[in-house]
Amino acid sequence: MKILLTAIGKRIQLISYLKKEFTIIGTDCSDLNPARYFVDQFYKVPAYHDENYIPSLLAICQKEAVDILIPLFEKEYPILDKHRKEFEKTGVSLLLSDTSVINICNDKYRTYEFFKSHKILTPESYFSIVEIENPKGKYIVKPRDGMGSQGVFIAKNNKELEFFSSYVPSPIIQEFIEGKEYTIDVFCDRGGRVVSCVPRERLQVRTGEVSKAITRNHKKIIRQAVDICEKLGGLGPLTLQCIEDLKGDLYWIEINPRFGGGVPLSMEAGIDYGKMIREWKEGKAVSSQINCFMADFLMLRYDEAVFLADNNQGKK
């Protein structure tokens, strides 16, 4: 079975785990990405917003007889979902939630509205400072359509709040919650049925991606995450984030319809993503792996490098 991953960048650990069971085709809009040297076949493609992007992917899928397409870049999700039927006609299944879910996840304020409408505890959020009556304490300022903790700032006082809210494009302002931060790796079968749910406590984050984390068998987080995902109706990989405050209350802050950067920890802890993906593709009811992971399992990440000779050096 063949999987096509888009925007592979440096997702080497994810590729390595999926290669245990699948042939992996990788694409990216840049040649200068390390992950291309770890996939079975690499193709450079136009940027996601280029009119030739979808035709390029379709041509690759036909040439390589791809079975499943799993996109890794949020910006391309609405476009791929729009062309879902074109991929299905070539025998390619798109492992991605539908437009209604994507629209909620890709807009931080819509995520906030989703939480509020379902009475899910979440930090109060605002479009601008003028909506905040008598602002006090710390606030988080981030782009409504941000990714990977990019452009996220902590405003410690009103002066910083004014600056960051004018500096960040299309900002959303959220009250700051003190506590432990968790990322939850979830996999959903058709109909939003959750078949895997692994909370990871974020011990250290570097440039928006977790560098130190540990799995936790946190029953309250698992229970609430399952409830949220079933209300959302997602498909395939979802990544949620929450903060457990000093009183033990859970504040839910984000949902992303993709593999999180730290999902290799959940894989190494025992979750068999290969089996879940294969069963989904075959149209079977995906076997539940709830509570089938090793708790208190630590991940410490480090950098590696790919070294290459520049054969174009000196050429004009």
What report would you give on this structure?
There is one protein chain. By secondary structure, this protein is of the alpha/beta class. The chain has 3 domains: 2-95, Rossmann fold (3-Layer(aba) Sandwich), CATH 3.40.50.20; 124-175, Dna Ligase, domain 1 (2-Layer Sandwich); 178-300, ATP-grasp fold, B domain (D-amino Acid Aminotransferase, Chain A, domain 1, 2-Layer Sandwich). It is built from 10 helices and 15 strands. It has a 6-stranded antiparallel sheet with strand order 14-13-10-11-12-15. The longest helix is centred in the last third of the chain and has 14 residues, at 219-232.
Provide a concise account of the structure shown.
The protein has 316 residues and is of the alpha/beta class.
Task: Give the helices and strands, then pairings.
Layout: E1 2-5, H1 12-18, E2 23-28, E3 41-44, H2 53-64, E4 68-70, H3 77-82, H4 84-89, E5 93-94, H5 99-105, H6 108-117, E6 125-126, E7 139-143, E8 153-155, H7 158-167, E9 171-175, E10 179-188, E11 194-206, E12 209-215, H8 219-232, E13 236-245, E14 250-256, H9 263-268, H10 273-281, E15 298-300
Parallel strand pairs: 1-2, 1-4, 2-3, 4-5
Antiparallel strand pairs: 6-9, 7-8, 7-9, 10-11, 10-13, 11-12, 12-15, 13-14
